[in-house]
Amino acid sequence: MGAAMGAAMREALGAAMGTAVGAACRGLLDYKTAKFALTRNRRVGLLHRLLQLGVLGYLLGWVFLVKKGYQETDSAPRVSVITKLKGISVTEVKDAGNRLWDVADYVKPPQGENTFFLVTNLIITTKQAQGTCPESPSVLDGICREDADCPVGNPVVRGNGIKTGKCVMFNTTHSTCEIYSWCPVENDTLPRKPLLAEAENFTLFIKNNVNFTKFNFSKDNTLQTNDPTYFKSCTYDPFFSPFCPVFRIRDMVEAAGETFGNLALLGGSIGVYIKWDCDLDHPAALCQPQYSFSLQDRNYNFRTASYYWDPQKRHYRSLLKLYGIRFDISVHGQAGKFSIIPVAVSLGASIALLGAVTVVCDLVLLYLDSKADFYRKEKFEEAKPPKDKAEASV
Question: Where are the transmembrane segments (predicted)?
Fold first, then answer.
């Protein structure tokens, strides 16, 4: 009896497993689809269309038109800058006489760099020799009443030399410490007007080249012309001569929001920005630079000296405190060209946003609408398993 029951159970179990395996194999070829419920809710329908239009407007307007999301870009071009400044000025300085200034005198460092300094004003202290002399009364640590105020060997704080231990008369009204220094001490009388006022009419030639290596494309900012006199006679103007790379100093200063006279007196710093924004889906002739200028700082100066020997073999120097305008030239830009990869990425992102629109509308319909309970019942079906025979007989 027991053996018969065991055999029956094994047979039933084998049949059940066979049925399950068969059902699983048949299920591999089944196709399941979502169930949609059509609702006549105009508010949610209007929200759905508005969100869809927003996604479409974002794709066409912002991604494709504004950001050109259909292009592959190169935003790190290789750049080169060459500068040449031209102009001549004459200054008349007390104790130094008339002096002619050309590009070798008023441009620091030598030409060709993308950062350079243009001298516009200066203070000259001539025929300085190493020795002892009174410190300038404009230096607070150099003022004294007696020798004890000038400890020997101590440097003058923010001064010009080393104290010798003596307090001497600088003039009829001031006593200062005697120092070991280049004497006489530096002249600190600044001219009321820029000595190189003619520098406002100097011209700066900026030759710039960019190379977008990703697209094997290069371009420079000089006009391709057969006229050898063009660059000698043209001056940049954003409307009338946008392709001339020759700039007048006064125009650059005014474009930065300052007047040349004010900036030239005490010096300053101006940034020159060259931006390339090239759409390589259009002709290369349309790829042109855009120039902008900004005032970075006021009051800029430094000191330099020239040394010489007199016929008696005495060593002298002429000290120059130079005021002027520092120009910092920077180049940046990007190029774009059509590519199927960014198009696919942009379309994929937009399709994902459209899917998110449906999710948002479902949340509003099923949880925020006044008839949310009704819509939930229509959208979701509760699947109940059939009752077995034992439960049915109870």
Answer: 50-70, 340-368
